[in-house]
Amino acid sequence: MQKSLSLSVTILGAFSFLFAAPHQSYAQAHTKGRQVAPFTPALKAGDYAWHPDLSPSGPVVILVSLPDQLLYVYRNGVRIGRSTVSTGKPGKRTPTGVFTVLQKKVSHTSSIYKGAQMPHMQRLTWTGIAMHAGHLPGYPASAGCVRLPIDFAAKLFSVTGIGTTVIIADNKSAPSHTVRPGMVFSGKAGTPSGSGFVWTPDKATKGPVSIIMSAPDRKIYVYR
To answer: Can you give the residue range of the structural domain that contains 133?
Structure first.
């Protein structure tokens, strides 16, 4: 009887571990993040830079570079943050284009992947694409979302709002200065001629339109 009871307890413990493991392992998998100096040239997985004092106020624009696995944050045209990310793995590629933040939740559990916790979730589509804290292994590994270090996800969450513009780009969907931007975000397609503007609607004939006004550049940018 004693051996039978011991065996039952062992089996029960094993089943408890199996059922608890997915939730525990997912929580442990979240990358906390490591803050580095603002102008650190190369970031390792989990690294981020955050210096909001460079531009204390103004509209926020977020740019995600799929080739470099980096996210850039601009406020009033000036970069205030940069972070490593993990985007969609092969077969679950993160979509490119211009999006807006549709919904924000500090605590969120996925309705698609049961039990998956997504802290500081910022929804970009109603079909399951969002920015949120998660595991950053150093390469694209998500099911399509943009994973962020936990600490950076909280900071990003604090400066965005519903309607914040998010540009997700790769080498095929955008010019190099958009995929790899500098400290000041221009996003311009070329140098304005004597007429004072560049207008190339043929580069994107359909899709949602976003208009960004940059005080430092004294220019207006139109994205589609």
So the answer is: 34-223
Contacts of 94 (CB under 8 A, 6+ apart): 64, 66, 87, 88, 129, 140, 142, 144, 145, 146, 168
Confidence of residue 43 (pLDDT cuts 50, 70, 90): very high
| Tokens, residue 220 | 């207006």
The per-residue pLDDT for 27 is 45
Residue 26 pLDDT exceeds 60 = no
Which amino acid, one-letter code, is at 157? F
Q: Are residues 148 and 74 part of one domain?
A: yes
Predicted confidence (pLDDT) at residue 87 exceeds the cutoff of 50: yes
pLDDT (0 to 100) of residue 32: 94
- Has residue 174 got a pLDDT over 90? no
Residues 1 and 57 in one domain: no
Q: Indicate whether 47 and 60 sit together in one domain.
A: yes
Domain identity same for 45 and 17: no
